[in-house]
Amino acid sequence: MKGKIGIIGGNGQLGGAIARGMLTAGAVAPENLWISARSGVAPALADWQGVTVTADNTELAAACDTVVLSVPPALAGKIGISARDRLVISVMAGVTLQRLAALTGAARIVRAMSSPAAARGLAYSPWVASAEVSPEDRATVRSVFEAVGLTDEVPSEDQIDQFTAMTGPVPGFVALFADAMIRHATDRGIAVAVAERAMRQLFLASGTILSEESASPADQVQAMVDYAGTTAAGIVAMRDAGIARAISQGLDAAAARAASIGEGEA
Questions:
Q1: Most buried residue among 31, 73, 84, 133 by CB atoms closer than 10 A?
Q2: CB 90 within 8 A of CB 157
Q3: Residue 266: its pLDDT value, please?
Q4: In a shared domain, residues 75 and 145
Q5: Per-residue DSSP letters for 120-147?
Q6: What would the DSSP string read from start to end of 66-90?
Q7: Pathway it acts in (predicted)?
Q8: Both 42 and 145 in a single domain?
Q9: Which DSSP state fits 27?
């Protein structure tokens, strides 16, 4: 990655995860990474000597070629930087490209979504770019997000809101489903510790298989249904109960919240 990169909010859950993920992957040298945090310290990065930590957002923006914004959306109006000649990457939910331009004075802006799984190199980070973002800027963005997982450029901001709902919360909805299965098991007399152990292993194995197999999730479901065994009976019953509709309604509610959470005065 060329030049210096700074993360405003780099001591927070998401900003810190991105910082640790990049450092672990070797995508940025510690001496080329700046962190801005209100406390002025970043203890989670203590293992990497050379990282610059400041409490001054303006100092970070002046020193860095790329500025990542990772503060809570409600605090977006307090960022207080001028970044007219910088590449600005925001991972703040719901803060639009238009508002980011007003907040920072930048023209080269990328709006993205990631997740704390970035610390483990497991995030999915889709992003959308303003018209002024150059091919070189795009290479920088890909370097950041490929260091912490998988990434795609998407064509519109509304898709970022959808992905904020779907892939931002980790484990989020997956944990909800696992908890429902654990509750089902314990209601039928299985010990809590055993049920949790079983479901953690199930979801670990399922995630690995889904990520590595060439068959799509839909194809894998259909293969189970075609086999007509115990899982097929469960899938059919869940479908008949309207599980897909319930999931869609939940994701729509989350996406609507994502679209509104970043609203505020520039």
A1: 133
A2: no
A3: 42
A4: yes
A5: GT-EEEEEEE-TT--HHHHHHHHHHHHT
A6: EEEE-S-GGGGGG-----TTSEEEE
A7: Amino-acid biosynthesis; L-proline biosynthesis; L-proline from L-glutamate 5-semialdehyde: step 1/1
A8: yes
A9: S
pLDDT digits (tens, 9 = 90+) for 112-138: 999 999 999 999 999 999 999 999 999
Confidence of residue 174 (pLDDT cuts 50, 70, 90): very high
Grouping H, G, I as helix, E, B as strand and the rest as coil, residue 151 is strand
Is residue 121 within 8 Å of 148, Cβ to Cβ? yes
CB 45 within 8 A of CB 20: yes
Which of these three, 159, 194, 216, is where a domain ends? Answer: 159
CATH of the domain at 27: 3.40.50.720
Paired strand residues for 33? 5
CATH number, position 238: 1.10.3730.10
Q: What phi and psi, each to the nearest 5 degrees, are found at residue 70?
A: -140, 55
Number of alpha carbons in the 13 Å side-chain half-sphere of residue 142: 10
Query: Cα(41)–Cα(18) distance, rounded to whole angstroms?
Result: 16
Residues 88 and 48 in one domain: yes
Buried b (16+ CB within 10 A) or exposed e, 69-97: bbbebeebeebebebeebbbbbbbbbbbb
The residue segments making up the domain with residue 88 are: 5-159
Percent of the chain with pLDDT over 70: 99
Q: Where are the beta strands (DSSP E) in the chain?
A: 5-8, 33-36, 52-54, 66-69, 87-90, 109-112, 123-129, 149-153
Provide the number of structural domains found in the chain.
Answer: 2
